[in-house]
Amino acid sequence: MNRLIIVSNRLPFALDSAGTDLWTVTPAVGGLVSAVEPVLRERGGTWIGWPGIAGKIPQGPLAEATRDAGYNVVPVALSETERDEFYYGYSNEVIWPLFHDLQNFCNFEPAYWPAYKQVNERYADAIIRNAQPDDFIWVHDYHLMYVAQALRERSTSRNRLALTFFLHIPFPPYDIFAKLPQQRRLLHALLQFDLLGFQTRRDVRNFLQCVRRVMPGTKVLSRGDTHVIRFEKRKIRIGHFPIGIDFDSFENGAKSEAVTQRSQRLRASFPDCQLMLGSDRLDYSKGIPERLRAFRDALERYPEMRSRVVLIQIVVPSRVEIPRYHEFKGRIDRLVGDINGRFSTSTWVPVQYHFRGLDREDLLAHYRACDIAFLTPLKDGMNLVAKEYCACRTDEDGALILSQFAGAAEQLKPDALLVNPYDVEQMADTIVKAFRMSPAERTVRMKRMRRMVRKENVFWWVDSFLKAGATLGGRSSRAFEKRRGSATLQSVKA
Ligand code: F6P
């Protein structure tokens, strides 16, 4: 089997200084890490990425953090300026908001683009140093869209490697993408990959529309879900590959004795109440204020809900150094305070709010114990929390309220209750619908969702992507025959 080389901004853990010569290692949060980690654990390979600290990387703590990984880890160092301009800057103040249709949140600071290119070039150098001709190079996500171009600009034999890319976040429609000052340069860079994977058909459609509009004359050949772009005498394949989760690992974890006990304890703390769960990274794209406003509206308009429903909202700290994220936390805090101040009684507090990540057992216990999952991103590449919730509902109970703008809606839509996160009243009505839904209907819906999440799991995702890439550059499709194992998932956060 060819070696798999994963290249992403994040390694699956972050190092942090806790004083002179003292370091902490924490699992990284986010969909990318939680999906890719079990795959590399199962198949082995190399992961090239950044360990989350600016400046020199301490070798001892790094060796400690990667000792039992089961794959090689190649760290890429960023200076403080690069962290600020590449990671916080271009990646998270330009691409992230723009690709989530929130162009008003963008800071199109010109200095960010050279930093983005410079760091992508460093990743290209790391690939050149570590890859062999037969390796499968798989670059991930919006931080590294320039890597293939940087590799091709380096005139070594390595630039004949087949290069593949997967975008974990959405790709915006043309009218939004057109705001990006570097729109042409970015598309040109993306077209240096040989295979481009997106989460959904919607993202593929948007991408192709942008190519047609920004680069007129570029040939796009489409047949059904297969698309090929002819560009600079090369063929680039485009496809959608909805990312999944390690279903078995979630299901088995949820059935364990420890999780069963924790979920029973959780349930017992809220007698006579239905529990509704929201779980997100701290991010303005997740629709948390909209969700809280919908819950407030439901409590106002439907008094039967009072003392009968509790919303457990978990917010995992993320990118707090970016001012907008910090301000956003203030908004959530105020809304939670407002709802609890207005509706609490001596025996009932409507919103249970945790601003921290839960450990794995606790998270699984929450999935098992909560009657309703309420996930309302304004836009989301996939939203793996929705899939994790289904995988953990081993009792086949539980209702899922899901934003129609989450990638997962494309797969779960017949059975999830889809909502428009901008429509607070519709969301409030949907909470009530979920609250009143009969156990029989919940089971029918949950069974079907579980079937889908089980089938289109993370190994299915990786196999379909590798198969699509298997024939690039004359590769043999046998090179990526499946190897199943007992993958374990260590860091799970949405
Ligand atoms: O899944 C989307 C994603 O942006 C990942 O690429 C990223 O690793 C994760 O969310 C968490 O964000 P960050 O790496 O900025 O902490």
Structure description:
With 494 residues, this protein is of the alpha/beta class. The chain is built from 18 helices and 17 strands. The chain has helices at 31-43, 59-66, 80-99, 112-130, 147-153, 174-177, 183-190, 201-214, 247-255, 257-268, 288-301, 323-343, 360-369, 384-392, 408-412, 424-436, 439-455, 458-470, and strands spanning 4-10, 13-17, 23-27, 46-50, 72-75, 136-140, 163-166, 195-198, 219-223, 226-231, 234-240, 274-281, 309-316, 351-354, 372-375, 399-403, 417-419. The strands form three sheets. A nine-stranded mixed sheet has the order 5-4-1-6-7-8-11-10-9, sandwiched between helices. The chain binds 6-O-phosphono-beta-D-fructofuranose (F6P).
Output the number of helix runs. Answer: 18
Estimate the mean pLDDT confidence. Answer: 92
- Taking all Cα atoms into account, the compactness measure Rg is 22 Å
Largest sheet: 9 strands, mixed
Strand percent estimate: 15-25%
Name the poorly predicted regions: 474-494
What is the terminal separation in angstroms?
A: 31 Å
Quantity of strands, as a count:
17
The SS-based structural class is alpha/beta
Q: Estimate percent helicity.
A: 40-55%
Strand order of the largest sheet: 5-4-1-6-7-8-11-10-9
Shape: globular
The distinct ligands, each listed once, are: 6-O-phosphono-beta-D-fructofuranose
Oligomer: single chain
